[in-house]
Design a protein that fits this description.
Length: 430
């Protein structure tokens, strides 16, 4: 039997954690538990970490890659789930944790249900449409920043902007980013930046205004980020005339501000980088443009100089031009002389050809004419009245020489002349 006044056992920390883990394993494991997801994150290794909570408490959970790969859905903050796994102790921190072996949806938490309901209503109104979103300025004159003065995001954003664009002023409009007063303060800061103007240094310049607004804060649970789901704030961002960039939470965190903003960044630092192109990059772009313009100007100058050289070569010296013209006239004279000589030779050849062919042509034409004449002579001979008279016919005429061809032309006791083949005879009609 142990002595009552004996000293308690002195445990090492590691041994105590193992003993607690063994006790939990013997008393509870395996275990099933139901609750609402909060602060869900997935590491690059594939492991998932989150809290499971209800109205009376919360417990840290770890779901390793093998079990996470079997999930049929993407867990989100606010979802009500049922988990199966084993309670244990993470010795490195001494934290109680539930190592999750399986997960299934059991319903959605109240906050998440409110989130989805408002998201659906605003989306149906077209507040999340890409068509209404504004483009970010490529060269902002001033950058507006809304965040908490105590937020780590403030340092991250300012550091990034100072590194990339130290020449651009950053106008800070502080506001709470968590708690009941946060929506009102965020809304007021947004209004202040919209109306902010820096005094002009010259009468010839317009007062400087903010060209883009960043709304940023670090990650957290759905409850921590709930201010950025405020309907009044979301509608004000939608109506804002200045482009708004949302950089709230981590890459896995989503708020209604992310959907209505003109651009959503996965982190506050990324939001700063989106609105501020690195000065060295701008310098490089300017150097590239300068080189392009220089090359273009030099190329044009080279072309103009070449053209001048060509024109000067064509003009030449006056004596050279006179010599060129004389040579040109000589070439023209030679061309004309050759052309005249060629035409004369052609005419002489034609005449020679005609002189050779003329006798033959004349003889041929003469024979043709003789044949035509003989033909006409034959026809004339056939028409000779003497040939008719020699066949026994006579040609009768009255005293006046009129031919008598019909019996009615004769009168009693009329003198008629009859022409025969060998002469005439006088006749009297009885």
């Amino acid at each position: 039997m142990a002595r009552l006044d004996s000293e308690p056992r002195v445990w090492s920390v590691g041994a105590l954690c193992l003993a607690i883990a063994d006790t939990l394993n013997a008393r509870f494991n395996p275990i099933a538990v139901k609750g609402e997801i909060s602060g869900f994150s997935r590491a690059s290794s594939g492991h998932c970490y989150f809290n499971l909570k209800d109205d009376s408490g919360q417990i840290r959970c770890a779901m390793f890659k093998r079990a996470a790969s079997a999930l049929g859905f993407m867990p989100r903050d606010g979802e009500m789930v049922e988990l199966r796994g084993k309670l244990g102790v993470y010795e490195a921190r001494g934290d109680l944790q539930l190592v999750v072996e399986s997960m299934q949806r059991a319903g959605q938490g109240d906050l998440f249900a409110q989130f989805l309901k408002l998201k659906t209503a605003l989306e149906n109104e077209g507040l999340f449409s890409q068509a209404r979103k504004k483009r970010l300025p490529s060269h902002p004159r001033a950058i507006g920043l809304i965040t908490s003065l105590g937020a780590a995001a403030l340092h991250d954003v300012v550091t990034a902007l100072q590194r990339r664009v130290p020449h651009i002023p950053v106008i800070l409009a502080p506001a709470s980013v968590q708690g009941s007063n946060a929506p009102v303060e965020l809304l007021q800061s947004l209004k202040n930046l919209v109306t902010w103007q820096a005094p002009s240094n010259s009468a010839n310049h317009q007062p400087m205004a903010v060209d883009v607004i960043l709304i940023v804060r670090g990650g957290g649970s759905m409850e921590d980020l709930w201010s950025f789901n405020d309907e009044t704030l979301v509608r004000a961002v939608a109506a804002c005339p200045i482009p708004v960039v949302s950089g709230v939470g981590h890459e896995t965190d989503f708020t209604l501000l992310d959907f209505v903003a003109d651009l959503r960044a996965p982190t506050p630092t990324a939001a700063a980088e989106l609105v501020a192109v690195d000065r060295s990059q701008r310098v490089l772009e300017l150097e590239t443009v300068h080189q392009v313009l220089t090359d273009s100007v030099m190329a044009n100058l080279d072309k103009m100089n070449q053209r001048l050289d060509w024109v000067a070569g064509r003009l030449g010296r006056p004596s050279g031009r006179i010599s060129d013209q004389n040579a040109k006239l000589q070439r023209i004279g030679q061309t004309l002389k050759f052309a005249v000589r060629t035409q004369v030779n052609q005419h002489l050849q034609g005449i020679k050809t005609l002189s050779l062919n003329l006798p033959k042509a004349f003889q041929s034409n003469l024979q043709s004419q003789q044949r035509v004449l003989s033909h006409h002579q034959t026809r004339l001979d056939l028409l000779d009245p003497h040939l008719v008279l020699e066949r026994g016919y006579a040609w009768l005429t009255d005293e006046s020489g009129k031919a008598l061809t019909h019996t009615k032309d004769f009168l009693p006791a009329q003198d008629v002349s009859a022409t025969l083949a060998d002469g005439q005879v006088k006749l009297r009609v009885r």
